[in-house]
Amino acid sequence: MKNIDTYDFSGKRALIRVDFNVPLDDDLKITDTTRIDAALPTIRKVLDGGGAVILMSHLGRPKKKGENKLSLKHILPYLNHVLGIEVKFADDCMGESARTLSAGLEPGEVLLLENLRYYEEEEGKPRLPQTSTDEELKAAKASVKEKQKEFTKQLASYADCYVNDAFGTAHRAHASTALVADYFPEDKMFGYLLNAEVESLNKVLKEGEKPFTAVLGGAKVSGKIQIINHLMHKVDNLIVGGGMMFTFIKAMGGKIGKSLVEDDLLELTKNTLEGAKMHGVNLILPVDAIAADAFANDAKTRLVKADEIPDGWMGLDIGPESIALFNKVLMNSKTILWNGPMGVFEMPNFAEGTVQIAKSIANATQKGAFSLVGGGDSVAAVNKFKLADKISYVSTGGGAMLEFIEGKALPGVAAIER
Ligand code: AMP
Fold first, then answer.
1. What three-state secondary structure class fits 312?
2. How confident is the model at residue 132 (pLDDT cuts 50, 70, 90)?
3. What is the pLDDT of residue 115?
4. How far is the CA of 378 from the centre of ligand 1 (A)?
5. Which residues line ligand 1 (CB under 6 A)?
6. Ligand 1 atom closest to 289 (CA)
7. Residue 376, pLDDT above cutoff 80
8. Can you tell me which atom of ligand 1 is nearest the CA of 343?
9. DSSP annotation of 374
10. Annotated active-site positions, please?
């Protein structure tokens, strides 16, 4: 595999898949530049190495070509500002402008291609009205797959090498995230951002020092079952909190009042409990909970045993004894993976469990553990509590990160490693 640090970019044009899917306000101004800023080291590396850069990305979910509010031209002023050069813009990623501008690029220059998703070929999925018949859909699918080959080939024709730096879309087998890599068998590589994500996830899942503790929370068991099954072969401790704990507690015969539960998963959850015993995994559930009489921040609350939630009450956070129990396990861990909040942390009265677990993970990290936090809500939680810089790695991947910890191969990663 080629490495961005050692690759010779001199005189070459690098096609870089970035994630510039940034939020824009009504005046089409960027409201959060994090994703653009995160791609800058990779862009600068190519430019400093004497190469030219062709940037490609999607923005939002356009329904048709040319939707102005989803044009990447809106990010040009910011890009010019941070790179300190005038970035060229091809107003159609398949148009004449893209061909001529990419062909004429000089070392040190940057070209941005218009939104890839203006073309259905990028995702390889037809955009048909919902009223379409099955036959129409089948024919359209075949046709878009065929057109996708030409689309990919043309993207590849703009450059001499390919760099994927978009982890957020690495779980998609799209033209720009995976298929295009095959046109550069000797000249494809990860950008810095994608590399850091893959390295950190591998550090936890493949090379994690023991004891390895995974903390899983969030609403439902159904959303996490594949993660649980995959982690079962890897972890020493599996801490379960959040709404999903009640399906486990009910499966063990506990009383859960009107807490969130997935009755159709009780059998599966029992199997998971058995599986944990078989694999020697210490599956740890909360021992106490903050119960509320309604799903509201100002609801009446009581501290109760986690398996004795009174009728008519629902558990919305873990209690102090559970926090202390989890803290002890975390402080003795060398590798920590956290996904999903411990309670309804969006409501201040039910955020304590999540805050304290985030703090325990930060403290364990300071003591030498490697910690990785991922998934929208847990990342939001560490940011909200200003603990992100005390965690070893905060994954930005969302869906991609979840699929990675489910043990699935990510097409965007596999296409480079292949
Ligand atoms: P997920 O997307 O599956 O990680 O779930 C995150 C959501 O789970 C957050 O919006 C939390 O408010 C919610 N959640 C956490 N604990 C509970 C609970 N005890 N009851 C209901 N929802 C919860």
1. coil
2. confident
3. 98
4. 10
5. 218-220, 223, 242-243, 260, 315-316, 340-341, 343-344, 346, 375, 377
6. 19
7. no
8. 16
9. -
10. 35, 220, 376, 399
Residue ending a domain, choose from 161, 190, 219: 190
Per-residue pLDDT band for 181 (boundaries 50, 70, 90) equals very high
CA atoms within 13 A on the CB side of 268: 15
Gap from CA of 132 to ligand 1 centroid (Å): 37
Tell me, yes or no, whether 256 and 146 share the same domain: no
CB atoms within 10 A of CB 37: 12
Q: Are residues 273 and 163 in the same domain?
A: no
Give the pLDDT band (50/70/90) at residue 127.
confident
Same domain, 136 and 253: no
In a domain, 28, yes or no: yes
Q: Are residues 253 and 283 in the same domain?
A: yes
Residues 107 and 52: beta-carbon distance below 8 Å:
yes
Last residue of a domain, one of 190, 209, 229: 190
Q: pTM, whole model, 2 decimals?
A: 0.87
Question: Residue 224 CA: which ligand 1 atom is closest?
Answer: 3
Pocket test for ligand 1, best of 260, 317, 401 (most atoms within 8 A of CB): 260
- Who's near 125: CB < 8 A, 6+ residues apart? 141, 144
User: Average pLDDT of 191-201?
Assistant: 95
Q: Residue 128's pLDDT is what?
A: 81
Whether 166 and 206 share a structural domain: no
160 and 220 co-located in one domain: no
CB 305 within 8 A of CB 288: yes
Q: Quote the ligand 1 centre to 260 CA distance (angstroms).
A: 9
The CATH number for 374's domain is 3.40.50.1260
User: What are the E-state strand segments in 135-224?
Assistant: 161-164, 188-190, 212-216
- How many structural domains is the chain composed of? 2
Q: Dump pLDDT digits (tens) for 332-348.
A: 999 999 999 999 999 99
Q: Would you say residue 381 lies in a domain?
A: yes
d(CA 188, CA 338): 31
Tell me, yes or no, whether 172 and 216 share the same domain: no
Domain holding 379, by residue range, is: 200-405
- Kindly state the DSSP code that residue 25 receives in the 8-state scheme: -
Say yes or no: 124 and 244 in one domain.
no
Average pLDDT over residues 53-59: 98
Residue 244 CA to ligand 1 centre (angstroms): 8
